[in-house]
Amino acid sequence: MKPLEIHNLTVASGERILLSIPAASFDEGVMYGIVGPSGAGKSTFLRVLNLLEKPRSGSLSIWGHKVNAAELSHSKGVHLQRQMAFVAQKPAMFQTTVFDNVALGLSYRGVPRSRRAQLVRKALDLVGLEAAAGRKATSLSGGEAQRIALARALVLEPKLLLLDEPTSNLDPANVAIIEQIITRIRKERAMTVLMVTHHLQQARRLSDQCLFLHQGQIIEQNDTEAFFESPRHEALQDFISGKMVY
Ligand SMILES: Nc1ncnc2c1ncn2[C@@H]1O[C@H](COP(=O)(O)OP(=O)(O)OP(=O)(O)O)[C@@H](O)[C@H]1O
After folding, report:
1. Would the pLDDT of 76 be above 80?
2. Dist. CA 43 → ligand 1 center (Å)
3. What GO molecular functions are on record for this protein (predicted)?
């Protein structure tokens, strides 16, 4: 059973088609890098998967459980959403402690207090911020906040992790820290990861496979090495070589 399959998915705004994916599937334990020019629909894609955006048509199958576009909303999709976790490009910190920020999702899921404490400490340890548990989350630096956002996602032990530009706006040291965390958790857990990134070298370093999203369509998908070394589509060749692609 695949963690995620997509069938005839379209997202539109008025007459404009923002995303059109006839078919795609994602395997267990594989990390996918999603790249493409600005406005290609990368964030829209992750937002649909995370039930934040309703598609016009199509369906998703998550571990074989098929959900049609009409059902892809928060109220009907909660059981699906609980299998995944999403880290936004600019994660918002709630005005409480770091500990409570990480614990929040567990509280919603009804995890008992003592178990919550155990899981939160483990997640904070994973991102190297156990000492920050009592700090106000809004006082964190950008890099620390991004690590806490990762901890907040990982504490839920998702089967599917969706990352939307997890290191944008971070300095190289923090980029390296986040990348190390992602690499480490992938060794420890059989999680499927979909990561949107603007950094081609980051996609190359971290991903097993890469997808090129262009004008709302996946026009190329391949093993990472082949994706970069022998791109088939001309737009991807241009994109990789740094030419402007619209
Ligand atoms: N809710 C919306 N209503 C109308 N248009 C939208 C909406 N959300 C996104 N768009 C448009 O859809 C297109 C895809 O946007 P999206 O943010 O998914 O692109 P992206 O590939 O993530 O871009 P970037 O790399 O710049 O973040 C853009 O042209 C954007 O303006």
Report:
1. no
2. 7
3. ATP binding; ATP hydrolysis activity
Determine, yes or no, domain membership for 139: yes
Cβ-in-10-Å burial (0-12, 13-18, 19+) of 189 comes to middle
Q: What is the mean pLDDT of the chain?
A: 91
Could you say which DSSP state residue 15 is in? T
Which residues span the domain enclosing 103? 91-157
pLDDT band, very low/low/confident/very high, at 25 (cuts 50, 70, 90)? very high
| pLDDT at residue 75, as a whole number | 59
pTM, entire model? 0.92
Domain presence at residue 191 = no
Q: Tell me if 71 is assigned to some domain.
A: no
Q: Identify the CA nearest to 151 among candidates 195, 106, 203.
A: 106
Ligand 1 nearest atom to the CA of residue 41, by list position: 18
Partnered with residue 31 across adjacent β-strands are 193
ipTM, 2 dp: 0.93
210 phi, psi to nearest 5 deg: -130, 150
Distance 44 CA to ligand 1 centre (A): 6
- Please count the structural domains in the chain: 1
